[in-house]
Amino acid sequence: MTRLLDKSPHPRELWTKFNQETFQETHHIVFGSPVSRTDAVLTRSLSPVTGEQTTQREITIYLKKHPKIESTALDLIHELVHAVLSKPLDPYTPDLNLRGYITQTLEGPGGEIEAVYSECQFLKDQAWENKKDSRCERYLNKLSRAQIRADFYRVGEHKKMLDAHTLKIPITSSAPIFISSTGNAPYPVALYYEYQEINRQACENARRRIASTQDSEASAMIQARCVSHRKE
Question: What is the rounded CA–CA span in Å between residue 229 and residue 232?
Answer without folding.
Answer: 5
